[in-house]
Amino acid sequence: MPRVIAILNQKGGVGKTTTAVNLASYLAMRGKKTLLVDFDPQFNATIAMGVVHAPNETIYHALLAGVSHEKVVKSTYLTNLHAVPASADLAGALIELIEIPDRELALRGFVEKAGGAYDFVIIDLGPSLHLLTVNALMAAGEVIVPMQCEYLSLEGLGQLLQTIELVRNNLGHHLRVGGALLTMYDKREKLSREIAREIRKRFPHHVYDVEIPRSVALAEAPQYRKPIMLYAPQSPGAFAYERLAEEVIAQMEGAPEVPIRYFDGSPGGEAPPTPPVPPPDYPQRSAFDMGAGESLS
Ligand code: ATP
Ligand code: MG
Hints:
alpha/beta, Rossmann fold, 12 helices, about 15% strand, disordered C terminus, binds adenosine-5'-triphosphate, binds magnesium ion
């Protein structure tokens, strides 16, 4: 059975697609048979990988239009990497899925059929928490949460963790948090360093050792429809995603969950860290305040 990993963060533009495409590529380069599933109606991963497909051969058509899973699994530049494209049609799936029984399990059914021959299935998600997200989390065994090393990156973290808990508790699905991944890290910027440190303290699960640097080559590669390993393999971004693939491979599936750390002053809990002083032109609310109703405890 493959390790199925969903790339999750309801915040837009934090590096989910960049992570999905490049993690999948380096897993494949390491000899792991990998299937990249684009599950975002923006279909950015499909574009970034240059996946060639007929208009009716997408994940939407496999889930809701009776197209066979064999038809939607496409080859890529890399021998060990296959991809399932998405299209804007997937936005319609949100409405159509509501009508069907087991609406949370449609993608899991697909992955069970299509994913058997793979070591890894990587699911790229869009910037929202809705039925498509729940479908991906029910299909996945693990999640990776890319977090941008920028102001406000921890906003909404409570809601994200609640969604994971909902899937675990209300839907009874054992979902492991693989970890948070620091993205767009600029070690020359004090704010970036402070936020990286803050995420390492505040994220209640594992945080990957590697930090994905802000890198022009990573931003350029999708324009050429290539993963970074084919566009700029010697760039810092390429090395970072290669290291991430190594860390992910090294993580044992089913390994004991790193215990959740709480910040409520309870025995063993940690005192809340002092947030950095925001620059004067930012709103005065702390970047590390949870939103209304959001809580880690
Ligand atoms: P969405 O929520 O819209 O799906 P996303 O979380 O998938 O967005 P990406 O599309 O991966 O985010 O990245 C957002 C933008 O930032 C893209 O233009 C991408 O090329 C760029 N980008 C991502 N990671 C980096 C990086 N490490 N350095 C520089 N640019 C990056
Ligand atoms: Mg994306």
